[in-house]
Amino acid sequence: MAALEIGRVLDNRQVARDKYVMDIAAPATARQCQPGQFLHIRITDTYDPLLRRPLSVYDVLFDSGIISLLYRVVGQGTSLLAKAAVDEAVDIMGPLGQGFTLPSENESIILVGGGVGVAPLLYLARLSRVRQCRVRLLLGAAGGAQLGAASRFEKLGVEVKTACLDGSAGYHGVVTDLLEHEDAGDYSRLYTCGPAPMMAVVSSWAQAHGLWGELSLEEHMACGVGACLGCACQLKAFEPGYAKVCTDGPVFNIQAVELSPDQARKEGHNE
Ligand SMILES: Cc1cc2nc3c(=O)[nH]c(=O)nc-3n(C[C@H](O)[C@H](O)[C@H](O)COP(=O)(O)OP(=O)(O)OC[C@H]3O[C@@H](n4cnc5c(N)ncnc54)[C@H](O)[C@@H]3O)c2cc1C
Ligand code: FES
Fold it and tell me: What is the CA(224)–ligand 1 centre distance, in A?
């Protein structure tokens, strides 16, 4: 059975027009978190909204029992979350799902994150740096004001390259263009999270170069624990072809997931 904990909001600050970082004291959950896992958050004490909302573990300060979440306000649940005050209780279920496979000591890894999709990559970078890995992050956003996460990676000693759709910071264009300047042979692993069109390009690049990789999928979720099939997703590597993103994922090997490259051409992919 999934663990429950009532955490306490330590901070809930706006970091961009529609993005917030919430720090929560939740020592029991913090001890269990793996990079790439998510927390299922109950937003209110009432039945509106009824369902919990899944948010990735952004960062963990293990010794202080603090978990950070990075979230974009898109609807009712996240709007209410943005109003949570310091000291307010947060009802947490988790950590849930399968996280990223950690690299071994001294590996060289590349991370590609788009928009709020960068969230599950920070704790992965932190633990990889503890293992003396060289870590490079390619980070895409709509505009420079949305690149606040970059400094948190840089503080860990991660090499960060940025791309913005509006040209206000870093490379002017989509983050996947930055891959053209990367030599896949420099890395032993690739990890990515962001809009599906972005991950489609990243995944094709990695597979074309024979680079091992994992990606994190975002699906609409209800129960979060494998009971409702609300997150079922068609994957190549699963029999009879459907996986439950909440329990089989959200992290999957890139070879298991077929993302449409046509989608990549039609949509921008730094959001
Ligand atoms: C495993 C996992 C990890 C996630 N991690 C993060 C994170 O770290 N930070 C973050 O900002 N968001 C994350 N999300 C997405 C987040 O859960 C949704 O944005 C949130 O539940 C929306 O709740 P809401 O009540 O504000 O919006 P709603 O009112 O429920 O929906 C508003 C809009 O958002 C869309 N939406 C809702 N849920 C999802 C979803 N799961 N995927 C795609 N579109 C959705 C709806 O279709 C609708 O258009 C994650 C989702 C999953 C499945
Ligand atoms: S959300 Fe219910 S099975 Fe995944």
Answer: 13
